[in-house]
Amino acid sequence: MSIHRSYFYYAEKKDDNEVIDSIREASEFGDGFWKIYSRLLREGKKWNHKRVYRVYKLMRFNKRSRLKKRLPARVKQPLVTPGLPNQTWSMDFVSDSLECGRKFRVLNILDDFDRSAIAQEISISMPAERVIRILEKVIWLKGKPEAIRCDNGPEYISNKFQDWCKANSITIKYTQPGCPTQNSYVERFNGSYRRGVLDAYIFRTLTDVREITEKWMEDYNECRPHHSLGDMSPNEYKRKYETDNNIINLAV
Q1: What is the pTM of this model?
Q2: Three-state SS across the chain?
Q3: At residue 249, does pLDDT exceed 70?
Q4: What PANTHER family is this protein classified in (predicted)?
Q5: Are 206 and 141 in a shared domain?
């Protein structure tokens, strides 16, 4: 093999276990090499930076994967039925696909007071900016809610949505991750909508989805009885509330 016998039998005597443990401990919060090396120097480790970098590469820390964002802790809040309209709205997305296979999303907005469907917006894409425009249009027609209950979807945890809610004095009630029952009103609405529309029809275009959804939403608000509302429809329950409390509805 054209190599010296001593080279063939040579066994490396380096022990890098202490360096490995130190690098792993110093890299807990995702710092790069030079930050880690500075930490080791501050801790009194006198290793040469070449040795530390050699071990750093062997550990494949020089090819760092993107860290996953962690949500802040969400406080569990009881699901209480509001005593007045526009106290709490619930929002959530459902998705389906057209006949061609292209997916679309439906944003459902519900008033927890009378379970009425305030809006159902259908689109291929629904970023935070679009959600804000939809809410502004609905607020102009229905009034502003005091709070909005939603999950931790990217549209809801974005800075744009949070800043908009803060500017409009709207409290965001986030549900805990993996706990859809904390938003039960809109989850139940999603199930009814899916059974009545999404699972019942094959859609060729978004126009088909919007037309059928509009008819279903009108029937839901005007005719569909709710056991929790005394077998009245949402709009019927709201009219009864306004009559009992001598409230004049100025909505056009």
Answers
A1: 0.68
A2: CCCCHHHHHCCCCCCCHHHHHHHHHHCCCCCCHHHHHHHHHHCCCCCCHHHHHHHHHHCCCCCCCCCCCCCCCCCCCCCCCCCCCCCEEEEEEEEEECCCCCEEEEEEEEECCCCEEEEEEEECCCCHHHHHHHHHHHHHHHCCCCEEEECCCHHHHCHHHHHHHHHCCCEEEECCCCCHHHHHHHHHHHHHHHHHHHCCCCCCCHHHHHHHHHHHHHHHHHCCCEHHHCCECHHHHHHHHHHHCCCCCCCC
A3: no
A4: INTEGRASE CORE DOMAIN PROTEIN, LOW CALCIUM RESPONSE LOCUS PROTEIN T
A5: yes
